[in-house]
Amino acid sequence: MKKIQIILFMLFALCAFNNAVGQATAVITPGSFTAEDQITIRINVTGTSLAGVSPVYLWNWSNLGGLNTNGDWTSSNETRKMTNVGPNLWEFSFTPSDFYSVNPSELKWLGFLAKAKNGNNGQTQDFAPNAVEPLIFTPTVNRVFPARISVNDVTSIFIDQNLAPDLTQQRMTPVSVEIKLFNVSSQVGATITLPLKKIGNKYFTASFIPSAVFVIPATAAPIRFEYKFKGTILDVNNMSVPAEGPVYSKPIDPLQ
Fold first, then answer.
1. Distance separating alpha carbons of residues 26 and 36, to the nearest angstrom
2. Which of 30, 146, 190, 200 is deepest in the core (most CB within 10 A)?
3. Of the candidates 38, 94, 34, which has an alpha carbon nearest to the alpha carbon of residue 69?
4. Same domain for 125 and 24
């Protein structure tokens, strides 16, 4: 009977030890974030099966499903390699909407774990769900979506005449949007003009991908684009004459 008790005690202790192993800790900075904020995940794998393992990789998923860019469970994608910042401390930074390649408004939560390149050789527990704060939309006369863009993103420009502060924009019949791309010192490529599509009462939009509509030299490094809405307006004689709104500017981020 005493031998059975010893065996049971050893089994219990072994189970308790196994349960302790693998309990990593993770911190996301900032603690509250939207899909368009850059975040940093720091994972402490001390006391887990990943302790002393190098390199360590991040494995991701979200409310929209898994990521096909994670690689295979037995061979993580090298782009998911984490940065070692201390003994058993690993970090990875990214912007969720870009990282998951989704519309920011669709991302509700994200999940992750840390693993060896071959996940069968070590992993942490799941860290999920981690809430993604909803984006707060403030209507303006002009708007660019998404809030952060690179030259390779589908970019949509909007004009809401209902919110226009000046008579010209209020009364104008918008027809097109004129767009210019700039680097630090000069304009990049030629000026382009895109037709506007009406999507509501005095609400118009146009979409484009900067790298697809502008010829961008490899050394150009665009940092912003400028745009203005153009159309027609009735003059004092009730004749249709050309009109245009003010010039707006939108930064371009060096995102991949």
1. 21
2. 146
3. 94
4. yes
Helices (H), 52-110: 96-99
Q: Check: CB of residue 64 under 8 Å from CB of residue 106.
A: yes
Question: How do residues 9-23 score in pLDDT, each as one tens digit?
Answer: 444 444 433 444 569
> DSSP code of 22?
T
- pLDDT, one tens digit per residue, over 161-211 is 999 999 999 999 999 999 999 998 899 999 999 999 999 999 999 999 999
Tell me how far apart the alpha carbons of residues 243 and 235 are, in angstroms, rounded to a whole number. 10
| Least reliable range by pLDDT among 109-118, 145-154, 206-215 | 145-154
Range of the domain at 241: 142-251
Of 247, 243, 231, the residue nearest 175 (C-alpha): 231
Q: Is residue 256 part of a domain?
A: no
Rounded Cα–Cα distance for residues 112 and 76 (Å): 13
The reply to whether 27 and 52 lie within a common domain is yes
- 172 and 208 co-located in one domain: yes
